Amino acid sequence: MAEEVLLAKKNGSISNGTAKSSFGQGNRQTQPGLELRFRNLQFKIKDKQILYDVSGTGHPGKVLAIMGPSGSGKTTLLNVLGGRIKCSRCQATIGGQPLTKRTRRNISYVLQQDIFFPNLTLQQTLMFAAQLRLPESLTTHDKKEIVEGLIDQLDMRKCTKTIIGDNMNRGLSGGEKKRANIANELLTDPAVLLLDEPTSGLDSSTAFALTLSLKKYAVQSGKTVMMTIHQPSAQMFFQFDTVLLLSGGKVAYYGAPNDVLKDFSDMGYACDTTHYNPADFILLSLLNKSHYDVITPYFLNRKLYMHYISGDNFTNFNNETAVEISNGKLHEPELTGRYKSKGDYFYATEDIENSDSSIDRFSDEDDTDSRWNTSFFTQFKVLTQRSFIQGKYRFLSTLKFVKTIGVALICGLLWFEIGRGRVREVEVQDITACLFFVTLFNSFNSLFDILMVFPSEREVINKERMSGSYRLSAYYLAKSVSELPLGIILPSISTFIIYWMAGLNGFQEAWAFFGTWFVMILMTVGMQSLGMFIGTATMDFDHALVLAIFIMITFMLLGGFYIKNIPTWLHWLRYVSPFQYSWSLMLYMEFDSSKPSVRFTSASQKNKGISRGLILIGTLVVFRVIGYILLRMFHKPMV
Ligand SMILES: Nc1ncnc2c1ncn2[C@@H]1O[C@H](COP(=O)(O)OP(=O)(O)OP(=O)(O)O)[C@@H](O)[C@H]1O
Question: Which regions span the lipid bilayer (predicted)?
């Protein structure tokens, strides 16, 4: 692929700064790459300074590699530029415009973790992302073409029907997941592509192939690519156009890979290239404290790195000048003056704060443009489809069918035909127990089916919300609607089996069966709502589990079956348990008409039945609404 790039360069088919070639963009008019400049970027968390006056420039058609030892601030730098975190003080522009929420939309950020829904295939994943993130002016056909183009360009044709996968179910390989992650961000045709450790976890040949693909993308599309990388091989290292070396949050070096060895040698650190990979060499130099103490001040004090930051704007600054500087022939005041006279926006580090630089401060003012590319309705529709496909695997797995049918058959056999014939007191006790158990079984299943949804989807929601893919309200509504039909299938099956095997009142009164089924559905949906509420309140597996068990056991004890004589001062607690409402409604339908001997209803009790049904519906709505409010208020996307 390197040869391809070189050949393309020779043939002149590669453009720098303009988007003549479309990299998997179908027939879409692509936007050119934009220059991303950042100056004196600082980042602090509490009292901990993480980035100190970091400056650099990503150029269209070029790849800037951000290197440095672990903990040097590479990811933090990308997070700041990608708008994931706010920097304490910095100045940045994109294409000459201040970096604001609006202009930052030209930037796509490929996170280090490959965060996707594991059960969707690669094609489904990309197509859903395209439908959510691409403007509605493009037809579905156009979006499909873009997705297919990217699949081809990133060499993933053979795995389009493969699921993304996770630890439990194998799917795409690590390298394929990385490519899927990149394709997902390329969909929006960004002017600047930021990538955090795109090669981490890949073997050397896959990492090299990926680096070449990124280089090809930058060159062919004229886009700006900036990536962090830990340990590039020598081959990879020389694919980069510029290297920004960070150490302890400071710029330790900024320059072209081809100049690195010479610059380090000028400082007295010559690299034996027959035995050393230059990338390893410079990283190891930084790890040696005495070397680090020389290298960083060398570049910072003399501002040699500023030359590289300015890039092509300083055409008269060549290697000889660099040698002059390194030999101490050119002194700092001359340097500063020279820069000032050459560029209208380029200043020595200490001058920036007081200057009228055209590089404006990071601005996070709200813009008036709509934040989303698609309407609420489109988002709702696409998210419902996606959530339905994803939910199918969770709600309707073979294991769950086996469990539900198995337990229902056991119950059916234990309570076989209990409701047939003459019902004595002992049968009444068995029927009430049977109905209470059906309520419990379905409620526990429904709650636990949905409990882990939000904690497990948290990362995907975070990522998608950060990239402005959709409104939270569209997501939440889609989730509620899509999982509703899925969530009632198994409880319905278990109710049918147990009800008919136990020979309950439906044999005499059809309405009793449909009424019981309806109450069971209400209960199931109510428990889904409770699960959503607990999931959003905790957003954590362990906490969700503990809270859910506590609440369910309390509801169970207060459901009316186990304790008949609650102390008077605790009577009010009976009204807390939804089991109490559903169970008494089912008892009403079981005993009201067919078994006059145990009839316990009167007109006022009928009214009670209706109000109990309404309370169940109210519970369902209230928990769902609170779940949404919690998600909106307390779980804002974060890095
Ligand atoms: N939220 C935070 N709170 C406290 N310290 C933080 C936070 N985020 C980052 N840091 C610290 O900032 C430093 C830089 O972290 P960062 O993740 O940017 O490094 P990195 O160069 O990307 O490391 P690596 O290569 O290991 O991923 C580290 O010392 C890290 O512990």
Answer: 395-415, 435-454, 475-502, 514-537, 544-563, 610-631
Q: How do strand 250-255 and strand 242-247 relate by DSSP bridges?
A: antiparallel
Same domain, 178 and 135: yes
Whether 305 and 156 share a structural domain: yes
**Could you give the 3-state DSSP secondary structure of residue 507?**
helix
Say if 459 falls within a structural domain. Answer: yes
- Specify whether 611 is located in the same domain as 508: yes
CB atoms inside a 10 Å sphere around CB 603: 7
CA 335 to chain centroid: 45
Counting from 1 in the atom list of ligand 1, the atom nearest the Cα of 68 is 21
Tokens representing 190 are 């960004």
Residue 464: give the domain boundaries.
376-634
CA of 71 to the centre of ligand 1 (A): 5
Residues 308 and 430 in one domain: no
415 and 290 share a domain?
no
- The CA 434 to ligand 1 mean position distance, Å, reads 57
pLDDT tens per residue across span 135-162: 888 899 999 999 998 898 888 899 999 9
pLDDT in tens, 459-501: 888 888 888 888 999 999 999 999 889 999 999 999 999 999 9
Give the alpha-carbon dihedral of 579, 582, 584, 587, to 10 degrees: -120
How far, in Å, is the centroid of ligand 1 from the Cα of 388? Answer: 37
**94: CA distance to ligand 1 center in Å?**
25
Domain match, 190 and 271 both: yes
Q: Who lines ligand 1 at CB under 6 A? A: 45, 48, 50, 68, 70-76, 230
Asked whether the whole model's pTM tops 0.80, one would answer: no
